Each structure stands twice: as C-alpha cells, then as structure tokens.
From TrEMBL:
Protein name: Adenine deaminase
Top EC class of this enzyme: hydrolase
UniProt binding sites for substrate: 271
UniProtKB keywords: Hydrolase, Metal-binding, Nucleotide metabolism, Zinc
C-alpha cells in the first residue's frame, strides 16, 4: 500500500493516456496525426513548457462529450487510488474546450459524473479547480467565469495555467477579485518558468492561497522567508520539472533545500500521462534520486492534506492525517 496522500496539482487533460486518446478519437471520428500510440509516445520529448502545451492542446481535441470527460476522470481516479491518493483537487481548462465549440455544461457535468461518485467508486474525495489560460485575455477569463456561474456548486476554486513567461499575474487581478467575492479559493501557477516576481505578484495582487510550482522562489531569499512565515504551500511536480527541463535531472531538484528552508512543499504529478508518472511515481522518484528519508516523505504527505482545501470537512482532514501518521513504510 502506497503512502496516503492528497494530489493538489493535477490537470485532468494531462491525464489523457495515448490509448484513451486513440479510443476517444475513434469514438468521435477525430483524426489524429499519429499512426498509433507508439508514434504518439515518440512525440513526448519536450524542450520546454510551450512544446508540451502544443501537444497537450492538440490531443485534447478528442474530448467531445460528457461521457468523454467522465471516462477521462474515471481513468485518472482509478490510477490515483492505486497510487495512494485519498483526496484530489483537480484542475481543468474550460477555455481550451469552449474555443472548440463545447459548452461549459458538457465539461463540468461530464467531469462531475465521475467526481460526484468518486468516493464510492474509488475511495478518493475530490474538488474541482477551474483554471484560466494566462496566454488568453483577461476579458476571456472574465467571460469564462461568467459561463461557470451556473456550476459554482461543483467548483471549489480558480487557478491560472498555460504559458507563463510574458503573461504576468497582474493581468488577472480583476477576475481573481470577482472570484474571491464569489467565495472561490485561489491558486495560480507561478515560478515554474517565470521569475520569482510572478510569485510575489500572485500573492499580492491575486490573493492566492497556494503556489503551483513556485520552484523559482529559491532565487529570492526574501521571498522564501515570506513563504515560510506565511505558511504558503507550494505544489511541486518533480517529474514534470525534469521533462520540461526546468531542472537538468531529478538529482538536481531543489526539493531537499526547499524542505530544509522550512517551505510547506507538496509533491504532485501535474500532467502524469505526459511526464512519466502519477502521484506515487513522483514520491518514489524523489525518494530514490534525492535520498529523502521516510520521515521527509511522511512530512510531504502530511503537507498535502494540510495544504488541501478541506476547511469544509476538517473531520476528513484529521482522518487522512491520522492515516499518514499510522503508515508503516
Ligand atoms: N497546463 C498543463 N500543465 C501545465 C504546466 N505544468 N504549466 C502551465 N500550464 C500547464
Ligand atoms: Zn501544472
């Protein structure tokens, strides 16, 4: 049994495995420009974030119906459960789907068909986080939030993803303010490829409660001090960082230094179908490459539940934390 954990940085579209992509393409009459899953896997060599995003947006065109989103989410939840994930806060990218002519209902209700039954079917509690694409306009983000209004009972929070450099958090100040007024929780990708200032801006201008990635905070000691002092969680994704060349090798990952600095770090899979591993694969990889002790791994698992948006169910959080404490390696 793997260590119990929460997954807090997971793009549902990034869980689309090649086999499912081809199945959905056949079901929906979508032509992919790859002959088979093997040829598709060959394309999984990324130079940087943008080269990955190009394939990520291309492949998600196979998702067309509620059933497709339900199947995608169920496939993820099955794998996540087998990897010890007890709670998952799941990102989705509605703008990428609305731009292809789908409506918000298809996306949210499709995902909800799986998420709403996830506890019974998979033993995994879930939350849904709507992400805005930062390389789209601020107006488009506001329109997307409006389109999501009928579904806010299904949506816990908002996030910000896609191409980071050149798209500073300040651009999304208004939509974050509106979302806060609606009672939505707030996270944002920052400091993955972008500079430490984007982390500071996300905290000061967007009021974020967790930083997704946040790796580059290590370039700014004052920012590290602030993140430690304010107990701001970071959702790190080690295998993603290697595949997108944010770090050279896993052995170079700053996770041990970040933990030593007192940062509230969590380990997550980001886009596991593309980056070679789900949640526990990331835990095992950092254990092996960075020599993390069992107590460090337990700390990471504890952090994942502490950083999760379970304020509406503290009893559950306490149960999950007790599972972590009782875990025998
Ligand atoms: N969308 C999916 N994965 C992402 C990542 N790692 N960074 C930014 N946007 C993303
Ligand atoms: Zn991400």
């Amino acid at each position: 049994m793997p260590l119990p954990k929460a997954e807090l940085h997971l793009h549902i579209e990034g869980t689309l495995e090649p086999e499912l992509a081809f199945d959905l393409a056949a079901r929906n009459g979508v032509k992919l420009r790859y002959a088979d899953t093997e040829e598709l896997r060959e394309a999984y060599r990324f130079e940087d974030l943008q080269s990955f995003l190009n394939l990520y947006y291309e492949l998600m065109t196979v998702l067309r119906t509620e059933r497709d989103f339900e199947d995608l989410a169920n496939a993820y939840l099955t794998r996540a459960a087998a990897q010890g994930v007890r709670h998952a806060e799941i990102f989705f990218d509605p703008q990428a789907h609305l731009a292809r002519g789908l409506d918000m209902r298809t996306v949210v209700e499709g995902l909800w068909r799986a998420l709403g039954r996830s506890e019974e079917n998979h033993g995994v509690s879930t939350r849904l986080i709507l992400c805005f694409l930062r390389d789209e306009s601020a107006d488009s983000a506001l329109e997307t939030l409006e389109a999501a209004r009928p579904y806010l009972d299904r949506i816990t929070g908002i996030g910000l993803d896609s191409a980071e450099v050149g798209h500073p958090p300040a651009k999304f100040r208004q939509v974050y303010e509106t979302a806060a007024g609606l009672g939505l929780r707030r996270v944002a990708h920052a400091g993955e490829e972008g500079p430490p200032e984007y982390i500071t801006q996300s905290l000061d201008l967007l009021g974020i409660e967790r930083v997704d990635h946040g790796l580059r905070c290590m370039e700014d000691p004052e920012l590290v001090e602030r993140l430690v002092r304010e107990r701001v969680p970071l959702t790190l994704c080690p295998l993603s960082n290697v595949r997108l060349r944010t770090v050279d090798t896993l052995a170079d990952h700053p996770l041990p230094a970040m933990l030593d600095a007192g940062l509230l770090c969590t380990v997550n899979s980001d886009d596991p179908a593309y980056f070679g591993g789900y949640a526990d694969d990331n835990f095992r990889a950092v254990r092996e490459s960075l020599g993390l002790t069992e107590e460090r791994l337990r700390e990471l698992a504890r952090n994942s539940f502490l950083a999760s948006f379970l304020e509406d169910d503290e009893e559950r959080r306490a149960r999950y934390l007790a599972e972590v404490d009782a875990y025998v390696f």
